[in-house]
Amino acid sequence: MKVKVIYFLVFLIIYLEMIFKFIVLKSAKVMDVAYTLLFSIQIILVLNLLCNAFKPKVSKVILMITTIVLTIYFMFQSVFYNLFSVPFSFMTLGLAENALDFTEMVKDAIIQNGFILILLSIPFWMLLFLQKKIDFVPFRKEQIAMRIAGIAFFLLILLGVIQIDQKGIYSTYNLFYNLNAQEKNMERFGLINSTVIDLTRTITGFEENLVLEVNSNEIEQTPEANNQNEPQEPEEVVVTYNELDLGLDALIEQTTDKNLKSVYQYIASVSPTNQNEYTGYFKDKNLIFILAEGFNSIAVDQELTPTLYRLTNSGFVFENFYSPVFLSTTGGEFQASTGLIPTQNILSLWKKNLPTISYGLGNSFTKQGYTANAYHNWTYTYYDRQNTMKTLGFSSYMGMGNGLEKLMSSKWIPSDVDMMKVTTDFYTSEDKFVTYYITVSGHAPYNFGGGNSTALRYRNEVKDLPYSTAVKAYLASQMELDRALEVLIQDLEEKGILEDTVIALVGDHYPYTLSIDDINQISTYPRDSIVEVNRSNFILWNSEMEEPVKIEKVGSQIDVLPTLLNLFGIEYDSRLIIGQDILSDNPGVAIFSNRSWVSDYGTYFASQKQFVPKGNTELDSDYVEKMNQSVANKFTMSQSFLKYDIYTKLVK
Questions:
Q1: Is the distance from CB of 394 to CB of 459 less than 8 angstroms?
Q2: Is it the case that residue 113 has pLDDT exceeding 90?
């Protein structure tokens, strides 16, 4: 019995899409499954035409190549997503190349995803088994014409179906026409169709033109205020806001470009953050800012990492802080140093256009007379930092390849301790300095054999711990960071400038090569793999702080920069930074790459479209929808600020 080509194609496409949807994306919404199945029909019809338009031998080769290419692509996307928590996009080929430049890490990721890869390979093995039973009878010319007409007609039907669902921020219509939300597109349209959309947008260019008219005052009002039974007389309090006169009214009136006008309108509608009791708290002190590779709260241990433990539990203590993964280290760096959300498209704009980011970490402080230096103990051109550092205000930047390799060993993995020892003399004699360190010693792979000399250095200290080898190696790698901090603090103290220096530290991302089971071995509470896996610490410490200041409000990586600007008393317009000062009165929110979020009142899981409230707080019925609108606006504006060079236009 012969099997028609179209039957195998139906199995191939539907099987791959459903495995990817259910197991990789963990998305099982009925509407998303229905749309994926519907849009897969178009792909099946096109491939069927391709595989039956030629002689049997050629068609057989085409079907085999199609199966192999699709299988490998689904495998690649599965490994990439599980490794970086974001799907691969063709908009950022260069970024992905950097992110995958560690052979051991990629090998470990493939091993960890072995079961999924085996499942995805099943159609290929079935084709090998069934190829002699598949009927490759070529279509006649009139059949080809009819099928082309049928494909065109079905495409019109799909475009009509898209028009039906226009309600809500993540409606099918908005995803197809207005939003650049690739993971949402994968959930709704399937991997193959979302890739077609991604490729089309990469080639033709794409403008996110969705800015919903929702004032942030409405979105971010506190539920407690909504539920008070009796009105209370407002106290007369003079509040100063972090905002400047940007001349927005005139710009809105004069601007003819509708997209640029919508950006100005959005900025004008945003509620600025208030200055507060901590405004200028660290004024004129020095700042050492550390972006720590793979650092997470699970690395903080009183015995193994005593310096991290001391700094985490003193100074400002942020008890609900998250470091969301956006691709890799470059995403963590962009969040912390700009206060903007780093999708792959936004990161690509940053590295391609190299816009001046006026409120970038270095730029903000150099305007106040600070000397700005940056150091990285790995290749200085990695992630194009030799160019992007200048956009942040660090004209002095040293890494391996432009000077640092002459002062310390560049053998993988280079030492964070050595980097501190050989660089502090370069800046500690300055009157005021802001110094930015990007560490590398905490990098994966987490093992004691191939590729991690740092973990091997501290193996004896962790060998008897009741954890997996990967967890023990991770803790060992973070001990190097701990010792580097110890060396740094000792040096500052010996030079008599410790009390005049603030140390800020965040992780670039959680250790994503560890499985969620590994992480939960050492976590103090059970974490999920979407939101809570990103919970971490933001160290903000000065030796003069006698008592810790505990902050319960939710915060994340994009809030680091505006929090620092407020503490150092640096004048800025908070409406031009997507993150916000965590110490302000504005309610907190942490935003994740798949558009899930955590607010002070609960957690929203985007894939499941489920909101889990905290406690018994009563919320407005449209609270979640308004928050989703706000989050979508923040994604869109992060891109628009760079695309339209807003900082050059507005910050004088």
A1: no
A2: no
Q: What is the dihedral of CA 403, 404, 407, 411, to 10 degrees?
A: -120
Cis peptide upstream of residue 122 (ω within 30 degrees of 0): no
- For residue 624, the one-letter residue type is V
Cα–chain center distance at 170:
19
- As a whole number, mean pLDDT of residues 487-502 equals 98
Residue 108 token pair: 């470990």
Cα angle for residues 625, 627, 629 (degrees, 5° grid): 70
The whole-angstrom separation of Cα 378 and Cα 538 is 23
CB atoms closer than 10 angstroms to residue 644: 17
CB-based burial of residue 496 (10 Å sphere; 0-12 exposed, 13-18 middle, 19+ buried)? exposed
CA distance 299 to 523: 9
Q: Catalogue all structural domains in the chain, each as residue range(s) with its CATH number.
A: 3-204 (no CATH), 278-583 (3.40.720.10)
Task: Provide the pLDDT for residue 227.
Answer: 44
**Stretch (H or E) spanning 597:** strand 597-599
pLDDT value of residue 8:
95
Say which residues have a Cβ less than 8 Å from residue 333's Cβ, sequence separation at least 6: 291, 383, 438, 508
Cis, bond preceding 445 (omega within 30 deg of 0)? yes
Note the pTM of the prediction, 2 decimals.
0.91
